[in-house]
Amino acid sequence: MSAPWRVGVVAMVGVIGLAAVSALAWREVAPPPREAPAPEADTGPVMDLNHLQPQDLAFLRSVLTEGEAPGRRSAIRALVMSEDLRGVPMLLDLAERTPEASEATLACLAALDVLRLQSRADALSALEDARGRRSLPEGCRAEIDDRTALLDVEPAPLDPDPAPR
User: pTM value?
Assistant: First the structure.
């Protein structure tokens, strides 16, 4: 009586093993499954951050003034990545207007980050304009004053004939 039972168990194990080997072999020769095309999602306008167009700036300005917090953070990030001097007034406007201290600080530091990448003359001009804004948060005004003081120092002329050592 025990022999037929053993034969049945061995047969079942053999069938399961054969099925597993067949599945692995089929996976190697079968074509990959086709993925369903992703539905078209509206991702908004496409902009080249290296060359912002007027419509790009208008869109970013509208997001900064009317958008929700995640959208404003994305717009701030886009303006910093673009390194475009035209974004500085928009960022400072947000810093003046927003009641949330962390967002005001973020906008102010983003504006200063963009200015860090500009020429000295452009940065000084923009910093002087920013110093005229009286409703910026105190921490932002202090940062602007510090950056202005650092840039306002005339660089020392290079010595054309350094003394030998």
Answer: 0.66
